[in-house]
Amino acid sequence: MNLILSLENFLTYLRLHKGRSIRTLEQYEFHLWRFFTYLQEDLKSGSTEDRKKWEDPEKIYWNHREVFLDTKSEKRWENRNIRTELRKKCRKNVEDITKEDINNFRLDLSKDGLSVKSINAHIITFRSWLKYLKKEQIPCLDPTILDLIKPPDREVTFLTNEEIERFFETITRESLRGKRDYAICQCIYSTGLRISELTALDIRDVNIDTLEFAVRGKWGKIRVVYLTDIARDAISDYLDTRTDSFAPLFIRHNFSEENIKTTELTDKSVRLSRFFITTMVKEYGLKGWILKNLHAHTLRHSFATTLLTNGADIRIIQELLWHASIITTQVYTHVTNPKLKEAHQKFHK
Question: Is 218 assigned a catalytic role?
């Protein structure tokens, strides 16, 4: 089977039968496209003008994902033609892929500076793709022979209580953007939401009165998260200041009041990205002279460590973070166990 055709069918299978999210499909497609262009470099360029925007396979949200994932009727015929062109151009078949190809590709990723975690993510994608091909009785490499690299111990960056106070003090709330940024950070620290979950929230999703709401997280499963009084007040203050009718809970505000009613602005175009929120958290961390490698996930880590140091059960924290395995949650016990420090101070004199 042609590699491009196998990619099309695999993405369709994930979408229709496995219910994978668009972000998951994008990641799987990116990993496989990166591998295909490694095997056949001239796939990156083509004869049509549209193909020029595909030439950089390093971009996570590269434009060519529309060719496989876009379902808008006006683009279907155009994308079908481009996929046909790709299939004709691709000289490799699924049956041609060897373990040596994947090992050499993995070595190439390592030379490019990718982390063990990122390289393993590619291998997990290959395993899933090959398992699908086996399921369809298409001759291919055995997915069980692809081993993951043993990752280093996971490092968790979190803020201490003093750093948390200093971080939130740096966010001035006189402006609408300041109110938004404060509400975002309080929402993450209050609920432990993943950034992808936060950016997907609409106003109607959050119940301010009950201090709890449901969110659809990883694997498409729904869990309940809880707001603190501070987070509730911050969100209410932000929403009361807004004058628009956009659905997303948190939006960008770099547009004029006159533009609100134009068709140029949509819910999708004003919704914040994960990159924006991570950058925003870093900037406030620098303003607060917090000398740690901050990112948006740091507030989620801080949520977990705050609960743990205040005596919450590890199983409860696992549920709140929506970790599939308790092993993932136990990393917090290694960095927040006060008894270790107490024992050291008591016996090492």
Answer: yes
